[in-house]
Amino acid sequence: MKYLTLVNVSKGFADGLMPLGLLSISAYIKKNDPEIEIKLLDSNCQDLYENFETPDVIGISAVTQDIGRAIHFAEFIRSKNTTPIILGGVHISTYLKLPKQFDVGVIGEGEQTMLELIQLEDFSHKNLKNIKGICYNNNNNSDRTIFTDPRDLITNLDDIPIVDRDLTNISYYSQPRQIIPYHFGRSFTMISSRGCPFNCVFCSTKIHWKKFRAFSAKRVIEEIELLINRYNAEIIHIFDDLFIADKRRLKEIHRYIVEKKINEKVKFMCLVRSDMIDDEIMKLLKEMNVVVIGIGMESGSESMLAYLKRKTTTIENNIHAIELSNKYKIPTMGSFMVGNPNETEEELLETLNFIKSYRNSPFLCPLTYISTAFPGTEFWNFALEKGIPVENFDKIVMDIPHNINDLKDAPLLTRIPLDRFFEIICKFDKETQYGMLKRNTFFPKNAYSIVKAYREGAIIEKNLFVGFIEVTKLLFMGMNYKINLFSK
């Protein structure tokens, strides 16, 4: 029997998000080789260093902003033994440079590749060269990474078993929490497709997954029912890059959910695009009991949005999406990007004003991120041409900081002077805080939530009177939209 330890070093934007990629690998290996014993080390709920026990093989997954964590943990392991360490995840698949602390890098999908690697007698180059979809460093030249032939994509995703959630600390992940706006409860995530049909200049999804593929509607329903029946899920966030990419599949999923009355048992959130949603799709989502949608709105500047999304969507599309959210009473979590390449101060302020115009609407909950150049993207190429130190991965700042010093060494793409840029993005942060405040103002559990909202308003404005006025506006808008302020 062999022992494999999978390691999640990334905490992500919420500690309630399971490492679904690693859990998929675990499920696939267990299905095809039940003799392999698998353990998960999970930074969401464990101290990786205190809980480490030496296995036969170690697999660590990392996105670019967490590659430093992965390297540090690999160094810790290497100081103890010579156990083979495999690096997987988006970073190695797009950056294509294997840190010396790792023996092997997995490029792209990891299920089949990890199964073949764990079944090797040893990790000699003689054995590794026959495994498709990996890279490893040349012992005679540490600067040279050797790549094997690429692995074909898994064409039928239904061949991959449902992710192995039992590998995790279920008591931790099943605790009630809020991972989507306005709704609190036993919340789980799932992925029903891989990739995205679009190719935005900032996104590495296309590079990693190559093309859009989806699990069948029946397979999606099977996983949803498992989440409800085994884990008592109350909220499911479908974490696809674009859940509505295949309209025919969406209609089939909708039909099953309504026929089986799943919509009476669980709430959903999913990610959509503003140029794709219309009355028909919103009606389907409403009937499925989708209670929040996520849209990458990116910018309030027409010219900047055209650049970021390669002219596939418009400000008018974003406005129409919010109007549909209003019409169907499904709030939108809209994400925006600031500090883009060649973005002027005027364009940045256009985005700020767009967000501010919806401050009193319960149907737009904004989130703002500082634009980051990820390997392989057009952003990345821009940064390299401009000499921006984007390979300082430990310096990446995506959330708006409270101190300008946190930005001084960050690989920023903006050409706006730092002092002025920080001054403006602090105003974006204020709108994000109001978005969080809405979660207490609309659909609160009790009257104390309203008191809490007034207190938060005073903190945001640093002025009791102004905060009182702003929160009262929110409450007034809630009544206009006929929102039940004391609904659970």
Topology (elements, then pairings):
Elements: E1 3-8, H1 20-32, E2 37-42, E3 57-61, H2 67-78, E4 85-88, H3 90-95, E5 104-106, H4 111-118, H5 125-128, E6 134-138, E7 141-147, H6 170-173, E8 176-180, E9 183-190, E10 193-194, H7 205-209, E11 213-214, H8 217-231, E12 235-238, H9 247-259, E13 267-272, H10 279-287, E14 290-298, H11 302-308, H12 315-328, E15 332-338, H13 345-356, E16 364-370, H14 378-386, H15 418-441, H16 447-461, H17 464-480
Parallel strand pairs: 1-2, 1-3, 3-4, 4-5, 9-12, 12-13, 13-14, 14-15, 15-16
Antiparallel strand pairs: 5-6, 6-7, 8-9, 10-11
Helix pairs in contact: 1-4, 8-9, 9-10, 13-15, 15-16, 16-17
Report what the structure shows.
The chain is of the alpha/beta class and 488 residues long. It folds into three domains: 3-147, Rossmann fold (3-Layer(aba) Sandwich); 174-439, TIM Barrel, CATH 3.20.20; 442-488, no CATH class. It is 38% helix and 18% strand. Helix 8 crosses helix 9 (247-259). The radius of gyration is 23 Å and the shape is globular. Residues 484-488 have low confidence and may be disordered.
